[in-house]
Model the fold of this input.
Amino acid sequence: MIDWQRRPEAPVRVDCHIHLFPDKLFAAIRQWFERVGWEIRYPYRTQEVLALLKGWGVECAWALTYAHRPGIAEGVNAWLGELRRREPMLRGFFSVHPEDDNPAAVAERALDLHGLDGLKLHAEVQQLAVDDARLDGVFDLMEERRKPCVLHTGDAPYPETKPNLDVSCVRERLRRNPELVAVIAHLGAFQTEQYLELTRDYPNLYLEVSFTNYPGVEPRKPFDYAILEPFADRLLFGSDFPNLTFSYADQADAWWAFEWVRRDAEAFFGGRAKGILS
Ligand SMILES: [Zn+2]
Done:
């Protein structure tokens, strides 16, 4: 019997990848997951999500959003800014859409008016490539302000890499914005090796680990976690809570089980993330 509410043994202090939405949108997203046959184990709304995280010892969570179509980023960002003001444990990551009239202006308002902390883009859901020239102004702003960008750019779970999900898009973006603080979600799966190589050239590039190592599920492509160890100082813990089909604690503890993670647990489970936002 899985205890879904179990507190992880891992000392998770900052979770760099959670999702919060207005209640109506949460409901719509859950329906979508149900249709594709995913059993979400934590079908909760914002207040319950935050209460659970606090109960598990999580002190800070990065709330990620996305604008799945043009014209909605501003509203999503305003909502998130309001929530962030009320919830001291939250850091808020805003969205932009390349088809908006002026994405850089949306980003500037997100930082200066809505008080948000960073940008989140989801290349697959938003049907964009991070090297799209229409996003140049956004990334120039983020680089100049040294604000982090969480980029879900990996090609998993697709068997073939779509052009907009190839690591080359991130490589090109970093060529243009070499100082950008970028956090690649889900270890950039399935192109993790190439992303790890990129960290050698870009000191502000990090990889976040959610949805890549959890018990009971065979990886769709074989992966040797030992290749991560030399890059341990670029890894951040994130969970993708609450949209999980497995236990939060099991996922965190699967990382905690690695000796090389334990050696620097304080940084992996929070300290490094705090440094990025300070
Ligand atoms: Zn996510």
Q: What stands out?
A: Residues 14-277 form a domain with the TIM Barrel fold (CATH 3.20.20.140). The chain has one domain: 14-277. The chain has a mean pLDDT of 94. The first helix runs from residue 23 to 35.
